[in-house]
Amino acid sequence: DNTVFLNGANSLASCAGGNGITLFKFDATIDPTLPGGIENPIQMWSKQLVSGSGHSAAFSYDGKTVVFGHEPGGGVAAGCPASSSAVNKSLFIVNVDTGETISTVLMPRVQNSTENCTWHNFNTVPTKGGNFIVSGNYQAGINVIDFSQPAAPKVIAYADPKPLPRTTTYGGDGYPDGGDWSTYWYNGKIYEADIYRGLMVW
After folding, report:
1. Engineering a disulfide at 118: which of 37, 71, 189, 196 sits with its beta carbon 3.0 to 4.6 angstroms away?
2. How many Å apart are CA 54 and CA 107, to the nearest integer?
3. Is 70 within 8 Å of 64 (Cβ atoms)?
């Protein structure tokens, strides 16, 4: 996923993908075809933070940090049981200027061996009152994270539904690849797109 932070001559773009996370800088006010313009951004750094692919990235409201999420198991595996590695259950808070990891957020709620779970799709709440992420996490549901202090992020709210039922309509073991595909804040509400239950607004 790609995310853009528009701030005139100090605009940024991030890409979370197969090579981890890459950060670019560009000037949104000059001719887009010139070096450093919209069509020719300057790469600041590229980091492989985990052994697998990256998935999502979002900038803090002040543009000083970027949050990186990845998707071990391709989003269908049970990535958050007690036996899962800390890396697989972690979200990364990264320094925009250097690419260095400032801190991580560990999924705070253990999921069972049938619940697919990763830090999947998220966005930043646009408020000057601090830096907050609203995240969708498949069957781990919703997490709202306060990372106003980048070295000490914390989950301040969540909604974690019960495990989905086993049925005969899914493959192999009968357990569904379901849960919260993406969760976004917009205009005072949280919009949750759940693969199994549909759209929910909080």
Report:
1. 71
2. 17
3. no
Between CA 25 and CA 38 the distance in angstroms is 9
CA-wise closest residue to 66 among 7, 15, 129: 15
pLDDT reading at 6 higher than 90: yes
Yes or no: say if 105 and 155 are a contact pair by the CB < 8 Å rule. yes
The torsion angles phi and psi of 73, rounded to 5 degrees, stand at 80, 10
CA distance 94 to 197: 33
pTM metric for this prediction: 0.91
Which of 73-77, 146-150, 166-170: highest mean pLDDT?
146-150
Average model confidence (pLDDT) across the chain:
90
Environment class of residue 159 by beta-carbon count within 10 Å: exposed (0-12), middle (13-18) or buried (19+)? middle
DSSP-derived letter for residue 199 is: E
**pLDDT tens readout for residues 127-159:** 888 999 999 999 999 999 999 999 999 999 999
**Inter-residue contact 124 to 133 (CB < 8 Å):** yes
As a whole number, mean pLDDT of residues 78-90 equals: 91
How far is residue 183's CA from residue 195's CA, in Å, rounded to a whole number?
12
| Contacts of residue 162, Cβ cutoff 8 Å, sequence gap at least 6 | none
Q: Give the three-state DSSP class for 10.
A: helix
